[in-house]
Amino acid sequence: MEKDNIIFREYRKEDREYIEDMIRKTWNYDKFCSPKVAKKMAKTYFINCFANQTYTKVATIENKVVGIIMGKQVKKFKCPIWLRIKQIISNISIYLSKEGRSAIKIFGNVTKIDDMLLKETNKNYDGEVALFVMDSDYRGKGIGGKLFKYLLDYMKEIKANEIFLFTDTSCNYKFYEHKGMNRRGEKKHTYNIAGQQADMRFFLYDLKI
User: How does pLDDT run along the chain (209 residues), one tens digit per residue?
Assistant: First the structure.
């Protein structure tokens, strides 16, 4: 892979399917629901993240998106109405099936855990990493590190003094420690997925800039 082939730019509409596919594979949606519902879950997750950002940067190689990072300026953030409507429509599409309702409960549980982690910090952060996902075939090549630096540069420009993010054991959370972030909170939770128990840990990391 030649470094010159990597292009970093803002998100475009045509990137959506690549990103949803990365989300679907990264969080293993197909392991606990049908391909149809897995696709809807990835779409819903992406819409929720896109509705929670003020900054985007994607990495592309030969017009293929191989990574994306999204960030949010917390204090000045306001979600557009059209995105709120898309969120509602996307959530309803999942609720229409029994399998979808079962899958969406996982989203709800994760949101509750994240809310508890944030509340327990007793902090008002200036910035948030809303989404950070890489194509597994392109990890370990320095692309993720560059995307993360782009986000930090943005946070410095908007004078964000401290940022945070949520992650869990299904992700490469050690990456954030390597980048100097501090593990501020941790919660454990056990899920019953497709007849099997899955133990997970959820984290909140933060960083002073």
Answer: 445 589 999 999 999 999 999 999 998 888 878 999 999 999 999 999 999 999 999 999 999 999 999 999 998 899 999 999 999 999 888 888 888 888 777 778 889 999 999 999 999 999 999 999 999 999 999 999 999 999 999 999 999 999 999 999 988 999 999 999 999 999 998 877 656 677 889 999 999 99
The model's pTM is 0.91
d(CA 72, CA 160): 10
Say if residues 190 and 161 touch (Cβ distance below 8 Å).
no
